[in-house]
Amino acid sequence: MDIEIREFVAYLHNIKKMSANTEVSYQRDLKKMAEFLGDRGVKDLKEVRELELEGYISYMEREHFASSSISRSVASIRAFFNYLWKEGHISKDPAENLKPPKVEKKAPEILTIEEVDKLLQQPDLNTVKGIRDSAMLELLYATGMRVSEMLHLQITDVNLQFGYVVCHENGKERIIPIGVPCKKAMEHYLESARNVFVKDQQESALFTNCSGKAMSRQGFWKVLKGYADSAGIKRDITPHTLRHSFAVHMLQNGADIRSVQEMLGHSDISTTQIYLGVNMNKMRDVYMKNHPRH
């Protein structure tokens, strides 16, 4: 099945224009499936039946794979066999009726407004590194963009005169406004710090490491973790925590969900609606603490 899997990944890359991370995930899921089936004597795609695929799903459940991992594998398997069927490699799609287990949606981890303020105060603005870090943290919280989107920003994606950034994802772009604190932090960075890091004038990445190359996810992760520790935030926060916090704080302060959906770049509003649940829990807590007849 290796050849067919490679052809499918090439199809995802060339035709579907999927991200490198998505391609890697599909390939990993399908190789695990192929290994499972091969160990049980099923090596030819034409021999794969719905029963074998259900057996693989049952195996993952018995081995206590996370429900989200199983669901992702089911999506990969369904997409793979649908592709094979459409291309005429198989006469019947054995994955057509394959169902993932129900995934319990967990409320996203968010910071309080006070915790965010404390986090944003941590960078030392007397150093070029602190000025850069302040701009990154302010931008993430001001826009709610994914860390990967922030790290792919180019200098030309920032318009400080009109107060917005242009975010690119999978061939699409969206314009996100930024507030005064973020605008000031970005101005400070571009005027005082970026040129200290960047030696190659051809480098177009907005944020770079100390060597003047584009900042990596791992590099930013270390920056965030260091400031979270110094801010005394005990929870295990990730770069995505600022995105979650942005969404919930916007809703708590009266933003409508459609606007938040657009700023986050969610194609389906049901993805954004998970933040309404967090917001409702917050309102319930406030009610129970403050209403005289709760």
TrEMBL record:
CC annotations in GO: cytoplasm
GO molecular function: DNA binding; tyrosine-based site-specific recombinase activity
Coiled coil feature spans: none
Core-binding (CB) domain residues: 1-85
Top-level taxon of the source organism: Bacteria
Active site: 146, 240, 243, 266, 275 (o-(3'-phospho-dna)-tyrosine intermediate)
Gene3D superfamilies assigned to the protein according to its UniProt record, in alphabetical order: 1.10.150.130, Intergrase catalytic core
Compartment annotation: Cytoplasm
Location of the Tyr recombinase domain: 106-288
CDD domains noted in UniProt: INT_XerDC_C (cd00798)
UniProt record, GO biological process: cell division; chromosome segregation; DNA transposition
Keyword presence, Cytoplasm: yes
Matches recorded under InterPro entries: CB (IPR044068), DNA_brk_join_enz (IPR011010), Integrase-like_cat_sf (IPR013762), Integrase_catalytic (IPR002104), Integrase_recombinase_N (IPR010998), Integrase_SAM-like_N (IPR004107), Recomb_XerD (IPR011932), Tyrosine_recombinase_XerC/XerD (IPR023009)
Keyword terms, alphabetized: Cell cycle, Cell division, Chromosome partition, Cytoplasm, DNA integration, DNA recombination, DNA-binding
Function: Site-specific tyrosine recombinase, which acts by catalyzing the cutting and rejoining of the recombining DNA molecules. The XerC-XerD complex is essential to convert dimers of the bacterial chromosome into monomers to permit their segregation at cell division. It also contributes to the segregational stability of plasmids.
NCBIfam families: PRK00283.1, recomb_XerA_Arch, recomb_XerD
Subunit structure of this chain's protein: Forms a cyclic heterotetrameric complex composed of two molecules of XerC and two molecules of XerD.
Family classification: Belongs to the 'phage' integrase family. XerC subfamily. Belongs to the 'phage' integrase family. XerD subfamily.
Protein name in UniProt: Tyrosine recombinase XerC
Source organism of the structure: Blautia luti DSM 14534 = JCM 17040
